[in-house]
Write a structure and sequence with these properties.
The complex is a heterodimer. Chain A is mainly α. Chain A is built from 14 helices and 2 strands, in the order H-H-H-E-H-H-H-E-H-H-H-H-H-H-H-H. The longest helix of chain A is centred in the first third of the chain and has 22 residues. The radius of gyration of chain A is 19 Å and the shape is globular. Chain B is built from 8 helices and no strands. Classes of the chains: A mainly alpha, B mainly alpha. At the A-B interface, loops of A face helix 3 and helix 8 of B.
Chain lengths: ~350, ~180
């Protein structure tokens, strides 16, 4: 355990604050166990922009805006903002769509998976197993030669600026609330923490995540590769401990399989949904949260994943693919299987094969 | 900055950029005082959404008023018949299921009542919200807290009984919806 390393402590602080604030935002008004959920928030944002008609899921979540802009500020302050991109754009865009399908079927992104688990929701165990297996599949793929190509530096252009500018526009729309932006008056979209607190929390966590490179699937991936030597696993441990502690302190720890908020009992589909998320995340270099942070650092490839996730959030709701407490709808199951076929096919197509002698 | 203004091409594009940005800003800033015409032409989907929701509330209250009147006067069977009539015309409306669940519960038909509450909440999550004009949170919560222990016990002692399993599954569904979350 590299305890004397500065980076180690930045990761631990980032993980701990993510757990603390993740639960705290739910205490302050965000939906139960969804203090931070990238996929739910993107579905809300897609709804606010009119990409779907579920009137219970429409809100421009300030946390998302904060994550991206916090990463921009942090990257700019550390002189790490680099406009770059150009590797497998359409693959990354579609990966963003399928990431949201996997998360939608499970009901939550990898961060929410752990927030649900630390609130006592034991139905996520199958999703956790799926995520770990998916990351392992992804690692096997990378070891087998799958390479999407590195994003090229973009010295003249500014393609990496457009996603941060888009989120800046979202901030303006959130503050001005023009008539074409939709805000739920009921349902989970209407449940939110105070705007300034959410935005501040997003900016802080976005900055810390940029500095630390903290990522849920990255933590699992690096643990497979390096065991306890990777700081990320300690960041994940800090996240879990902080979230459990905050849930206990807030009286929100209710262990069990039944009556859990935003959960279903289709364990097999939870497993497959998260397997898809874990597998894709390793291949494209990070979970949904990490993609937002990388987009804030000027990575246009990650930015394209984010735009894909936004469209995916709209599709998941508009087509009724998302899991609910009643279980996973038929087309949601089909979409997950199509997603797995998509990853498998691209794993074959993008594999760099060494010519046999 | 000087590199951006090297030649006519650059200067022309910078000029267009500045004109477009300032023009858009000016439009936005002056739109507030643009009078009735500007206000009427404003795209306002939020207003449309809110009006449609209010209209729906009023419509449903009118539609189900005869049923609720019959229920209040104790004529539950007639209320159920009236509900059947409405549900044939509007099969996708969940409010009828909620009212039917409530009446069936009064008639001690617990299993059917639970199934109707589930159908209603599946069609519209508003019924499982704590607040709102059609909130059935309190009655569903009472139903779940009263019936769940007994059905859990009965399902445990009769593991082969498919009906008990289905009712228990429905009660767990309602319990999850009452707990909230983002879905």
């Amino acid at each position: 355990m590299p305890v004397f390393d500065r980076h180690f402590w930045i990761v631990v602080v980032a993980g701990g604050l993510l757990g603390l604030i993740g639960v705290g935002l739910a205490v302050l008004g965000n939906p139960q166990n969804s203090g931070i959920c990238i996929s739910c928030f993107l579905e809300n944002t897609a709804g606010a922009l009119g990409l779907h008609g579920n009137q219970r899921m429409q809100y421009l979540r300030p946390e998302l805006i904060g994550f991206v802009l916090g990463a921009v500020f942090s990257a700019a302050a550390g002189r790490e903002f680099r406009s770059r991109g150009g590797s497998a754009p359409l693959l990354r865009f579609l990966s963003g769509v399928f990431l949201m399908i996997g998360c939608g079927v499970f009901i939550g992104c990898p961060i929410k998976l752990f927030l649900r688990l630390t609130a006592g929701d034991l139905t996520v165990l199958s999703g956790l197993a799926g995520l770990v297996v998916g990351v392992w599949f992804g690692l096997k793929g990378l070891a087998g030669g799958i390479h999407l190509g590195g994003g090229r530096q973009d010295p003249r252009g500014a393609s990496g600026l457009w996603v941060p500018l888009f989120f800046l526009l979202l901030l303006v729309l959130l503050l001005l609330q023009p008539g074409f932006i939709l805000f739920s008056t009921r349902g989970s979209g209407a449940q939110h923490a105070p705007l300034l607190f959410s935005l501040g929390a997003g900016l802080l966590l976005g900055g810390l995540a940029q500095r630390s490179r903290f990522c849920i699937t990255g933590s699992v991936r690096d643990t497979f590769l390096m065991g306890r030597r990777t700081p990320l696993i300690w960041g994940l441990a800090a996240f879990i401990l902080a979230a459990v502690g905050t849930n206990l302190a807030a009286g929100r720890f209710h262990p069990g399989f039944y009556g859990q908020p935003g959960a279903h009992l289709d364990y097999g589909w939870s497993f497959l949904g998260m397997l898809l998320v874990g597998w894709l995340s390793v291949l494209i270099g990070g979970c949904p949260f990490r993609q937002l942070i990388k987009a804030g650092e000027g990575d246009a490839d990650a930015g394209l994943v984010v735009i894909g996730m936004l469209l995916g959030g709209g599709l998941v709701q508009a087509w009724g693919l998302a899991g609910t407490a009643a279980g996973v709808p038929l087309y949601g199951k089909v979409a997950v299987l199509v997603g797995l076929a998509f990853v498998a096919a691209n794993s074959l197509l993008w594999r760099e094969r060494v010519a046999e002698a | 900055m000087s590199r951006l203004l090297q030649d006519h091409f650059d200067r022309w594009h910078v000029l267009v950029l500045l004109l477009a940005v300032f023009g858009a800003a000016a439009l936005l800033l002056t739109a507030g005082g643009g009078g009735d015409a500007a206000a009427r032409s404003e795209l306002n989907r939020q207003l449309e959404q809110d009006v449609a929701y209010r209209a729906r509330i009023d419509f449903l209250q009118d539609l189900y008023r005869p049923v609720l009147d019959l229920e209040k006067s104790g004529a539950r069977q007639q209320a159920l018949l009236k509900l059947e009539e409405i549900s044939r015309r509007y099969p996708g409306e969940g409010y009828g299921f909620i009212i039917k669940g409530r009446i069936l519960l009064q008639l001690d038909a617990v299993e059917e009542a639970v199934a109707n509450y589930v159908d209603g909440v599946r069609l519209n999550g508003d019924f499982a919200d704590r607040q709102g004009p059609f909130s059935a949170w309190n009655e569903i919560n009472q139903l779940v807290s009263r019936q769940l222990p007994s059905f859990s016990e009965r399902a445990r002692t009769h593991p082969d009984n498919a009906t008990l399993k289905r009712v228990l599954s429905n009660l767990h569904y309602l319990q999850s919806r009452l707990a909230g979350g983002c879905e």
